[in-house]
Amino acid sequence: MTLPVDPVENLAVLIRCPSVTPAEGGALTALANMLKPLGFSIDQPVFSESGTPDIDNLYARLSGDGAGDGPGNGPHLMFAGHTDVVPPGDESAWKHPPFSAAIDNGEIYGRGAVDMKGGIACFAAAVARHVEENGPLKGSISFLITGDEEGPAINGTAKLLDWAKARGERWDAAVVGEPTNPDRLGDMIKIGRRGSVSGTIVVRGVQGHAAYPHLAENPVRGLVTLVEALLDPVLDEGTRDFQPSNLEVTTIDVGNPATNVIPGKATASFNIRFNDSWTGETIMAEIHNRLDHAAASNRLRPGRETPIAYELLWRDRPSPVFLTRDDRLIGTLSASIEAVTGRKPQLSTSGGTSDARFIKNYCPVVEFGLVGQTMHMIDERAALSDLEMLTRIYQRFLADFFA
Ligand SMILES: [Zn+2]
């Protein structure tokens, strides 16, 4: 049997599976077929929840030194990621069809090339080379791969972790293969992520004639006051490991087409990316405080001193902030990157959330993958030289991790 030692071949196979969330598209099965010759035991659990599509997932484990399926000797490393991809957009705008895996001028084209079938293809190749060179593992490696990262993420990594834990799986460290490098391979490891929470403020007034404001109550006045209280003062100045927390007002809606009508209702929505000086609970409490204070102190207009009546609705639960402090994991990966690329990666907590937010509850987790420049874009593509280099980085990391 041929081992999946070539990341470009692995990636081409994966790209040709049209796995736009929530479709499996053959991608997980293709990955399973790649891993089987290496001796991985494979499960492909499907998770369901009413109101969301069923999702295919994959958990593959390779245990070295005759440990079988049980908890083997030596450390257990998890590689995590997703095979689902975002829609290709206007397919005719692509230089090469988005699921063709065409190679052109040293680059392979296709939806998911960098986000993140490329990372999976390289890690599979690295494991294959490691096993080929060193024989049985001195520990265990698991692939924890979902088909629901780009979608609602309900039937994906969170449930897969639970499912594996219930079967007795424990991990010592995890690497997520998301594209983390802004410009060049070796730029950046993500060692944490900011938290995120979104809310909507609804202010209700009394609709009326714009010329007779004493008979009405304009909710826009109240909303403007409340929004100002969200924005000023700033939430914090940043911390040692994180940039300052940020609140963005994402929309303000009144929907009033008439010039002579005072509207009856006004809403505003916002999203906060918060650092490790907050938890989801404390940041939400801060927002409630600011709004209550502003609502109570507001004078709607001279002679009108009723507080602003508002409702605050939180969308979903906050996703928590986290920071990985495992020096051995971070140090081993950094050293591998430096040895292969000659660049010392920046340890960063910037950017959006990822499935690492779930994994951090089980073991220390870091993220490192390809260059992210074309992710989610028309003509998403990866340089063949980067795929080879990332494979060597992962391979070196495996050698040191299992040394
Ligand atoms: Zn991704």
Automatic annotation (TrEMBL):
Binds 2 Zn(2+) or Co(2+) ions per subunit. Belongs to the peptidase M20A family. DapE subfamily. Its EC number is 3.5.1.18. Its cofactor is Zn(2+); Co(2+). The active site is at 84, 149 (proton acceptor). The keyword Cell division does not apply. Catalyzes the hydrolysis of N-succinyl-L,L-diaminopimelic acid (SDAP), forming succinate and LL-2,6-diaminopimelate (DAP), an intermediate involved in the bacterial biosynthesis of lysine and meso-diaminopimelic acid, an essential component of bacterial cell walls. The keyword Nucleotide-binding does not apply. Residues 191-296 form the Peptidase M20 dimerisation domain. InterPro entries: ArgE/DapE_CS, Bact_exopeptidase_dim_dom, DapE_proteobac, Peptidase_M20, Peptidase_M20_dimer, Peptidase_M20A. Zn(2+) 1 binds at residues 82, 115, 178. One of its GO terms (biological process) is L-arginine biosynthetic process. The gene is dapE. Gene3D superfamilies: 3.30.70.360, Zn peptidases. GO terms for molecular function: acetylornithine deacetylase activity; cobalt ion binding; succinyl-diaminopimelate desuccinylase activity; zinc ion binding. Homodimer. It is an enzyme of class 3 (hydrolase). Pathway: Amino-acid biosynthesis; L-lysine biosynthesis via DAP pathway; LL-2,6-diaminopimelate from (S)-tetrahydrodipicolinate (succinylase route): step 3/3. This is Succinyl-diaminopimelate desuccinylase. Signal peptide: none annotated. Pfam families: M20_dimer (PF07687), Peptidase_M20 (PF01546). It catalyses: N-succinyl-(2S,6S)-2,6-diaminopimelate + H2O = (2S,6S)-2,6-diaminopimelate + succinate. Keywords: Amino-acid biosynthesis, Cobalt, Diaminopimelate biosynthesis, Hydrolase, Lysine biosynthesis, Metal-binding, Zinc. Zn(2+) 2 binds at residues 115, 150, 376.
